[in-house]
Each structure stands twice: as structure tokens, then as C-alpha cells.
Amino acid sequence: MSLGKSSIVALAEFADRMYKDLQKEADKVTSLEFKTNDAKEHRLFEGIKFSNLKIFSLHGADHQDRMPLRPYIQPKLEQLSLLGGSASDRLLKELFIDHPGSISEQGFIRFLRGSRSLKKLVAVHRMKRFICYSVFSTICGMTELQALELATPISAGFVATLLRYWFQFGMARTFFPKLHKLDCTAESSALAELSPYLDHLTELNAGIEHSSASSAEVEDCIIQNLAEPARCPNLRILVLYYLVEEVVYIQPQVLINLVQRHPQLTALYICGNIAAEGFEDPHLISMMQALPQLKELQLEFDGHLTAIALAEAAKVCGAKLVEFDVRASFDLQNRTGINVSFSQLESLVIGKLVPSSNSADAMATEAIDTAKFLAELAPAVLVEAKSTNPFTDMVIENMKR
């Protein structure tokens, strides 16, 4: 019997005849369909995994509420179709979906409502257009969900409609009651509106969009929002990547307010098309002093820093920091008396190095001294510069020797 495409009846008949070979035959199944009332045969497949299943169809039946889908939802599954009935999987802990196949919106909602133990949901790629308001609203109320990754951009209008509905029925405080990790793309104002309801969030990885298409200056609002009281108070990892065409302006003091509000951060990434005009030593020093547990730092905007800021970073976080990526311009000539190092550092990235003199001979001598200083500051790594100038190139060449 060819089981590439199989009905439950055919598989059940095989199990009755040769049950000991059922797993071997189940490995051949790539398409499986439960028709009406076939769910009663599910008991035959307890302990069996359909590891190569790509297409799974489930039609409405009285048995579906008692039918877990764990044997069928495997890593190779591409198409899940829930057609009528109230399918559920109370035991399923993780679900990854990269395209909707023939599943209906209402079918997916019924599946989510029945998956009462679901802790991780990943809906990416071709699911981008499938996550509509009603699906997202259902996801928001999943009581056991701890990790969520969505490809669908979360708009401000989307969230405003959602909050109005949930407030109307007094349910706003039940938003994401156990969510620890959120990976999404969102308009900054939408994420700002959601943040008061993400009390348990420990990791936020967000691509930031802006609703305005104006070419005028855009000021950041999500960092300002997260710097306020009662906004994601348990954050440990914060990754914000600005995807907008316009430069987004961040006030250096707001960055300080952010980290002082979240001193437990172990990773902070602020990247993309951003600027923090006037970002200098006092700002970076204040940030590092507020983050004693920090292991990973990436600030992808320009600034003007000196050896003093690097030394303070090494002093406060040198024993834990593994990544230091600050795209500022560094003037390292004033380094007298600095005797600290990044003992755990695996990556040191800067914008560029600034010489104290434009004289070729003076630059050559300074490049040797600067390379020696950086080698002592970060003995296990080679500095990488994201911008270039002759002096920076000379320093890096000296570090390679």
C-alpha cells in the first residue's frame, strides 16, 4: 500500500493487520486526511509520529475536542486545514506556521482557542497577510502563551481597535497574561500602546515602523514610552531595529532614562536609521553605570566618545560584556592612567577612530600607541570599524601585527 497520500480508513486497516510496522509506514505518509467521524480512529496512532507529514486535513466531528494533534504537527508540516467542527490540541506546546495553506480564518481561531497549553506560536512568512484583527485578538487572550513571533506588522489602528473592544468588556488586563518573549514588526505608537499590558515580558525583539510617510524629522516614541513607569518592568533583552526611511531622532537623555528604568537588562540593541545628536561620554558612562548585568550592547548611531567612556564601560561591565558595538567616533588620545580591560569580550565594534593630528608622521606614531591600548583593553578580539578613514585603517593594521 502506498501511504504517500492516505485516508485514515486505509491507515487504520494497515494498523489492524501489521501494527508492529505502523511507525515505519507512518514515516512514509506525506498527506493525511481525517474525514467526518474519522477522529475515533486516533487512538490507533497514540505514540506514533508522522515525521514526514506535509499536508494534514481535519474535518468537523464530535470527536475533535478530545483529539490532540501532537502526532501530526511535526516540523515538516506545510499545510494545516481545519474544516468545520472545533478542533483543538490541548497538549500542544509549540506551533510554527509559515503559510496558511487552505486553513480558514475561523478554523485557525477555533484551533487556537482549543490549544489551551500552547506556549509558543510562530506565524511567519506567508502568514503575514493571514493574521487579521480577529486572529490577533484571539492570540492576545491565550492564557498560557509565553513566546510569540509574528510576521504581520502591528499597526496603531489595529491596536486602537483591539483596546477599545477589550476595554468595553473589561478585559484589557487579560492581554498576554504570561507572555515572556515577543518578536514582531510594529508601528512605534502601536508598541507604545501595548507596552502597559506586557507585565511579564522579558524579551522584546521589534522592527519599528512609523505610520507617517512624511519626510520631516521623526522623533522616537517607543524608547520614551519604555522609559516610563510600569512599562515592561521585567525586560532582560531589548532589541529595537528602526526600519523607516526617515532618520528617527533619539534624545541621549531618554536613553539614560530607559536603562535606569530597566537596570536588569542583559542585552540592549538599538539599530537602524537612527540618530542621537550630542551623544557623548557622560551619556554612555551613565548608561553603563545603570546596567551592571549587561552582556551585549549595540548602539547603531554616531556620537563623540573618548577613552574615558571605554574605560568606564570596561570597569563596570568588563567582567560580563561579550559584545560592545557602539558606532560612534572615538578619540582615544587621553588614555593616561587607564588600566582596565574587557576580560570576556568577543566582539568590539566602533564607528571610527579620530587622530589628534593630521600630520602623517604623528598619525603613524599615534596609530601604534592606539593599537597597543586597544589590544590591552580587549586582549581577545580585533577591533572592527564600520566607518573608515586613514587613521582607523592604520590602527587596525597595527593590531593585526
Outline:
With 401 residues, the chain is α/β, with parallel strands linked by helices. The chain has helices at 8-18, 22-26, 105-114, 133-140, 156-168, 188-194, 222-226, 252-261, 281-290, 307-317, 360-377, 390-400, and strands at 5-7, 31-34, 55-59, 79-83, 94-97, 120-123, 147-150, 181-187, 203-209, 218-219, 237-242, 248-249, 267-272, 274-275, 296-299, 304-306, 323-331, 347-353, 384-385. The strands form three sheets. Strands 5, 6, 7, 8, 9, 11, 13, 15, 16, 17, 18 and 19 form a twelve-stranded parallel sheet that branches. A four-stranded parallel sheet has the order 1-2-3-4.
Descriptive tags:
alpha/beta, 12 helices, 4-stranded parallel sheet, 401 residues
